[in-house]
Amino acid sequence: MRVLGVDPGLTRCGVGVVEGIAGRPLTMLGVGVVRTPADVDLSHRLLAVEQGIEEWLDEHRPEFVAVERVFSQHNVRTVMGTAQASAVAMLCAARRGIPVALHTPSEVKAAVTGTGRADKAQVGAMVTRLLRLSAPPRPADAADALALAICHIWRAPAQNRLQQAVARHTLNATKGRTA
């Protein structure tokens, strides 16, 4: 499974591609950040994020895109920019027919470090270890993007089984039977 992880942001949008399957060693195929200048009009910043993500999609051809689910923050301006960058990533994937998965920050932290309360340094250290890198990816947005991809690779099989079970139950219930 090849996953593009996207840590959305307007100034720095982390991107990272990881390949592998749950229970096996994972391989980093690329990591980086799509940057936009803060003094540029919002529409042009979103366009730059789109162009950057499209380049990553062209180069790495992921099967899935994992995006950090936007959560409420105290700074409304920051959360709006994050949500807009997140929507751009989802739009780019949808345009190509690539499935998108949303993972909360605490889900990603728990998947990678074992605790949903891990800090950025702990996430970076575990990403480094899991991908057998010589140093943590910088900036932290890049490490977070890789963590998103890892989280999706590890969680997708269980999520797929759950969705299939729900679908079977729903189908049986509509036929007058229960699963």
Name of the CATH class:
Alpha Beta
Query: What's the CATH H-level homologous superfamily?
Result: Ribonuclease H-like superfamily/Ribonuclease H
Main sheet? 5 strands, mixed
What would the CATH topology be?
Answer: Nucleotidyltransferase, domain 5
Order of helices and strands: EEEHEHEHHH
Q: Could you name the ranges where pLDDT drops below 50 across 5 or more consecutive residues?
A: none
Short overview:
53% of the residues lie in helices and 18% in strands. It is of the alpha/beta class and 179 residues long. A 5-stranded mixed β-sheet has the order 3-2-1-4-5.
Task: Give a structural overview.
With 179 residues, the protein is of the alpha/beta class. Helix content is 53%, strand content 18%. The protein is built from five helices and five strands. A five-stranded mixed sheet has the order 3-2-1-4-5. Helix 2 links the parallel strand 4 and strand 5. It is globular. 36% of the residues are buried.
